Amino acid sequence: MRALFMFLSGFSHISPSIPLAWALRSAGHEVLYTGTGERTRVVAESGLSMADTAPESDVEAVLVNRPGTQHRAPGETQEESDRIAHLSGMFDPAKIIDARDAARIAETFAGFAALTLDGDLEIARRWRPDVIIHEPSHIGAPLVATRLGIPRVQLEIHLQGVDRFFHPQFTRWLAAHHGVPAVEPPAVALGMAPPSVVPPEPTARPMRYLPHNGGGILPDWVTRPAGRPRVCLTLGTVVPGVEGVGHLKRVVHEAARSGAEIVLAVGDSDLSALGDLPANVRPTGWIPLHELLPTCAAVVHHGGDGTTFTALARGVPQLIVPHGNEQLLNTKAVAGRGVGIGVELDAFTTGHLSALLEDAAYRAAAEEVRTEIEAMPAPADTVPSLVRLLS
Q1: pLDDT tens profile 108-149
Q2: Buried b vs exposed e over 139-155: b needs ≥16 C-beta within 10 Å?
Q3: Fewer Cβ neighbours under 10 Å: the N or C end of the chain?
């Protein structure tokens, strides 16, 4: 069987699909990704192949200027841009993502589809896949599948399935630009969220989330027992590149006051804006999060899907300082399950981290979720049923 993987150009979008791609390859099937831009290098670094379907395009200009970051859309005031990131509506999805915000985000994803659609169609015609596997945000994938009569599998890479907010905009875009009033539904939908954290979609088949945070050489200290509680502080892969780390200065210094060992895992970001770091703060370069987190008593992060999923899979309590969009929804899910807490950036104090470290209920709940995830079918267990359904 030939499987064509279609995901947005970004580490956090592609990496959740890598374990399924390798499960297919290991079972003797062929796998090819489509995409464009530097952010797709994770495919090649994972030992898989990708066809660049828009080699002359500026995909960064399309994907980086998104709601919830410091970058504003043309004509927007700072107040308008900040609104979606404000935590007053943290626990109300209708306040987090309203119609205008959904339209802006959908426009971003539509812009990516417009860049790659011609190339995606051409590769699909040449390579002749038996199935297209894609994330919900890649709105070009259902169009390619419908036009060419190829069954598709939708892999829900988000913890919360936030793409449901954008479906009306996606439908209008397809109708307006491509004359497609409707696309064929997916033959299979795969959901990776643990049911006790996010109730599953009725038609989705469960598949275990396996962290894929890249490889690397682990520093010696990672595998040594820590002399005191270790806390990972990270911002994922998107926020540091867009906003830098300067806004974290207060969080870093407040976290250090807890007395824990603070591992500052922000890749190759410039740390000069943080000032002189306390002695118990250990800055580190790129390190696989799924290897670091099992040694940690807690993780402080921005609420991105990759970090949230990895912490759930490793059974680590979470303190989330969300920036916007799906991060607010993830905060709600984590807090609701009792595996962590959420706090506004400006309100973060040492007391929040100390409470997370000292209350054993958070660790117990996190371990329950880890066990729940481990009981879900692994990607390798999912492949045979996919083949049967698609044959």
Answers
A1: 777 777 788 999 999 999 999 999 999 988 989 999 999 999
A2: bbbbbbbbbeebebbbb
A3: C
